[in-house]
Every structure is written in structure tokens, then in C-alpha cells.
Amino acid sequence: MLRKAVIFASLPLIASCATPAGQANVSREQLDFYQVETAKPYDEVLAELEIAIAEHNFRITGHSRVGKVIRDRGAKDFPEYDTVQFCNLTLAKTVLEITPHAIGYMPCNVVTYQFGGKTIVRTHLLPEDGDNPELNEFAATMNRQLKQIVDFAAEQ
Predict the structure, then answer these.
(1) Ranges for the DUF302 domain (predicted)?
(2) What is the C-alpha separation between 129 and 8, in angstroms, rounded?
(3) In this structure, which topology does domain 30-154 adopt according to CATH?
(4) pTM of the prediction?
């Protein structure tokens, strides 16, 4: 009796691991990243990043100072780690009209962190080789802007 109860109680868990009907052909895209290293002081990189984002007509929607918060909680020598999210609503509308599935690429995100005595500036790039030519064109244009933002922030 107990065995039947355990089996019956486990069915929802087992069912949740199955692939939902119609989902077998869902594409899984691997995101590429663009990364630059610089010896420029970390705070200057962050300041330049904010300037570059604004100059490309994006608005910062979030800034997480992960390293600072961890240090504030007692890890005195913890390195810098930041994520900056940004968006342009006109571009967001454009890409979502191309495909609503592009919501996974928003907002744009740049991470900065310290590693090996350098500051790393990194962003994910949108895939340019999908089945939708209009989305590929949008991605190529967006990727150029993302690279320019990263390069400006890291530039000595």
C-alpha cells in the first residue's frame, strides 16, 4: 500500500521531467560573447560604460553591484563584479514585432569584473545565423552596437 502511494505521489514529478507535446523541436541557441580586457581602473570602466550606453540611445534599466554587496556583507577583499542592463524601447518593439521569442535577449546586458589584475568587459551577442533573415539583420546591427559599447568602456 505504501509503495503504491509513493508511486502515485511521484507521478507529477516524473511528468514534469517529460518534454511537453509540441516542444520536441524547440531550438536551443548558444549565445556568443564579446569580451575585452583592460588595465584601465575599474571605476573608470563603469563610468565609460554608462556614457557609451547613453550615447547609443539606450537607457540603463538595472545595475547590480554584486562585488560591492558581497564586500559589504563582510568579504573584505572580494573583487569587483557588476552587471549593467539597458534597453531602447524602440528597438525592443522592433525586435519583438519580428518575433516575440526575442524577449529572451532583453534587456541588453554588460558585465564587468576583475580577474588576473585586469578588468573584463563582456556582453552576449545575439545569434545572426537563425532561420529568420529579418532577425539576423537586426542581430547584426545590434551586435555592432554592443561591441562598440564594450570597446568604448575598455578603451585606454
Answers:
(1) 69-123
(2) 45
(3) TATA-Binding Protein (3.30.310)
(4) 0.79
